[in-house]
Amino acid sequence: MDLPRNKIIIIAAPSGAGKTSIVRYLLEKMPDQLAFSVSCTTRAPRPGETDGKEYYFIPVTEFEKKISEGSLAEWEMVYPGKYYGTPVSELERIWQMGKTPLLDIDVKGGLNIRRRYPASSLAIFIEPPSLEELSRRLQARGTENPESLTARIEKAGYEMSFKNEFDQVVLNEDLPTACRETEKWVRTFLQAPAP
Ligand code: 5GP
């Protein structure tokens, strides 16, 4: 189902590397070309998150049903007990609007999508300046308890080892610079003729 005109943009990074800010920037700058791909997850909503906007928040049983039906383009247990996945229906919904899905997903999920849609996807890795800085940013964000913070830092070290498998790596030392650089890669990719 890899229709050539149907492009996909993947923004992946360790948690806290700034990818959500970059994704928000791209959606604001390019609202006619891009739409956010809303994933399913079994984690609980954080304060301020709305079902159907940041995620479709669903129970584990429903998520596992989607896995067995094959209705997810990729899925991962990103953290112990917490599933995250990209519904195929979400990609199709966005393509049908004539836009390109923008995926904010973890590193392994990003590479899996890249492999599933090799001709039509652009995978960008957002690199944090260092693991120390990542830890500082996550603490400042204040969304994680100590266990979750430790899990995210440990996972980040592992995820960094995959950066060379991405089409582009953008260092997020300074957010506005990283936003502009990512936008440049996205525009170049969208302007290229469909394969
Ligand atoms: P958070 O819980 O902070 O919203 O997200 C945790 C991680 O899961 C982030 O790296 C986020 O990008 C990733 N994620 C979100 N949606 C998906 C998805 O559909 N698939 C995969 N593999 N990862 C996802």
Tell me what you see in this structure.
This protein is of the alpha/beta class and 195 residues long. The protein has one domain (8-191): Rossmann fold (3-Layer(aba) Sandwich). The protein has seven helices and nine strands. It has helices at 19-29, 60-69, 88-96, 107-116, 131-141, 146-160, 175-191, and strands at residues 8-12, 34-36, 39-41, 55-57, 72-79, 82-87, 100-105, 121-127, 168-171. The strands form two sheets. The protein has a five-stranded parallel β-sheet, sandwiched between helices. It has a four-stranded mixed β-sheet with strand order 4-3-6-5. Guanosine-5'-monophosphate is lined by residues 15, 39, 43, 74, 76, 78, 84-86, 104-106, 109.
Q: What's the layout of helices and strands?
A:
Elements: E1 8-12, H1 19-29, E2 34-36, E3 39-41, E4 55-57, H2 60-69, E5 72-79, E6 82-87, H3 88-96, E7 100-105, H4 107-116, E8 121-127, H5 131-141, H6 146-160, E9 168-171, H7 175-191
Parallel strand pairs: 1-7, 1-8, 2-7, 3-4, 8-9
Antiparallel strand pairs: 3-6, 5-6
Helix pairs in contact: 1-7, 5-6
Bound molecules: guanosine-5'-monophosphate.
Guanosine-5'-monophosphate (5GP) is lined by residues 15, 39, 43, 74, 76, 78, 84-86, 104-106, 109.
